[in-house]
Amino acid sequence: MDDTAIPRQLSFIIFHELTCRYLIPIVDCEFKPRSQDYDGEWRNWNSDSTLDSAMDFPPYEYNPPADIASVYYPYLGCYSSRNLSVLSEHMKIIRNTSIGVVAVSWCPLDEKGFPTDLFRSILDSALKNDLRIAIHFQECGQSKNMLQFAAQVQKIINNFGNHSALHRILHKGANLPIFYIYASDNDFPNQYRSILHQHGNMSIRGTMYDGVFLGLLTNYEQLRSFKLAQFDGFYTYYGSNGLSYGSSWKNWQNLAKYAQNNGLLFSPSVAPGFSDTSVKFWNSYQEKHRRNGRYYEVAWRAAIATSPRMISITSFNDWRGGTQIEPATPQKSQHYIYRDYSPYDHYFYTNLTKYWLTIFTKKLIRT
User: Fold this and answer.
1) Which range, of 5-9, 80-84, 335-339, averages the lowest pLDDT?
2) How many angstroms separate the CA atoms of 309 and 156, rounded?
3) Is 284 buried (19+), middle (13-18) or exposed (0-12) by CB count in 10 A?
4) Across the chain, what does the average pLDDT equal?
């Protein structure tokens, strides 16, 4: 076996964190980027800081393409999430890192928001680049109505379940698709019990709509809820070490042990850094500087030390959150000098990702 290749069953995931926010237009939501050239309007790149602004900070309106809502500037410029040539380029970049699976963010809204043609294009593009697609259910507009959530899962399987690019893993004797569920509500695991528990009144377990469901873990108390609701596991998502119990590297060994003892999957999430001060001016206390890749490397070491079956990366292109590994370029506006990856080149973080993927893979093969 080529020890630089990622076996599909190891299920290495990278989060296209801003898929609904801008990379892939799963639905028409406020965070999806548009470009003036391609769409006739700007969106996301010109996010108003008042979206999340504290009362004592004045609002600020960005003016793309020179002035954008990010502390970094994309090498591909202020692209449109509707531009499938950009999607194709992203898939090529991701494939060149040796990553095998892309988790696409999905906002379950309403009937007319179901993107059959678009999502099939995403799957087709992934397949051309030997990538697989998992689903990352986002909170934007997400209803807590479990009937609506179950309907979204059913539509995904009915429309795309036979597509070769839909990622599946062998889990508990079945070949099942992976679904990540992001929610900020501490009690959200219990809300899914009716669907995920084998005796739930709307249970999809053992049906054609069954899957591997991983929930976002933010605090220790959720662990028992994940088990009782019969989630298949949990992931940590956030790129800021210490932001939550789950995102704190020092807790990953304990989380891995709990998962192993209770038959759950654990996916620690690594990030190259974190800085969302372009839209949350007051949030600098949570900022994690990249330190020329050292922050990323410490995260990787902490994740690999837990011997996980899967690791998630937050993110490929969350420019607002400053967690992207997508190539960036030096740039400045009238009021701001953007950060970049100096003294390294545009592809520093995709190359660093490939390096640590190789180490992760070698360890998995040995074990």
Assistant:
1) 5-9
2) 25
3) exposed
4) 84
